[in-house]
Structure formats: structure tokens, C-alpha cells
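FW: tagging you since you asked about this chain on Friday. Here's the raw sequence from the shared folder, copied in full. Didn't touch anything.
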Amino acid sequence: MGIEFLQVKKVEEWRAYHAIRRLVLFDLRGLDGYDDTHPDEHAPGHMPLLLRKDGVALGTVRLDLSEGTTGIVRLVAIMPEYQRQGLGRILMSEVERLSASRGLSRLEVYAAPDAVPFYEKLGWVMVDPGKISPLMAKEIESSDHGSGSGDGPRSPL
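HL: got it, structure written out here
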């Protein structure tokens, strides 16, 4: 089955998506108040995404599209037992590929301070370090439809 990157649509995908985010971004950081019914999840142009390997949900991200050429990456999370295995890199590569296919040329993220080195390794640059969650950005190239080798994750988007 391998690695899949897909837009969350089915009930079981939503459950996995919220469970990962609640655990990684709230529970493990000692935060409360996670709201799996927040209207932003279903807002037009917001794409909740799930990374699975062999059918097991491992990571999440939400890509917020705008009318311009900049997308916002939100709430990146990889299950703790799967961190430091290259899955975050795969997740972000897939976000870039999807973004490029949607005509975006730039991505921005408000990074958790402990995630800044991760983003820097992937070519993101600091835009505004003065925030609690520093703003980082990455320029991406528009995709060339049809040039893929088919060797990457399956992306039914």
C-alpha cells in the first residue's frame, strides 16, 4: 500500500486527523481547548490533509489557499512514534507539490519555535522571528503536470 497523501473527507479520516492533531499539538504540549468542530476546518479553500503509510494515519497538515499565490501551512503534526523517520519531510514535500499544482508560488507557516530547525532544513526562511510562533516562508516552483515519475507517495487529490 505504501505512503498516501490525501484530502480528509471520510468520517474515519476526520477521526484520525483530529486525534493526531489533538495529541501532538495540544496534549503533548500541555495545552487544552482543541476544537475538532472549528469552522476553519471546513472553510472554502482550506484543505485538511492526512499522511498515511500502509493504511495507518501518521501525520496531518492543513493547507489554506487564498485568491493570490500564497498558501498558508497550518497545524503540521506527525505522531510521536513516527517522528524523526523522514515522514515530516515527505509530508511537506507533498504539500509543496499540491500547492504548486494549485498555482501557488509561496508558502507561509507560523512555526512552533521548536520546529524552526525542521523548516530551515527544508529550505524555509525566517520572515518574522518576533512572534510567539515565528513566520517562515518558502518560494515554490509551479508544477509541470505530467512530468512525475510515479515513484512518490500516492496523492489522490
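FW: The longest strand covers residues 56-64.
HL: agreed, and The two ends are 17 Å apart (CA to CA).
FW: great, closing this out.
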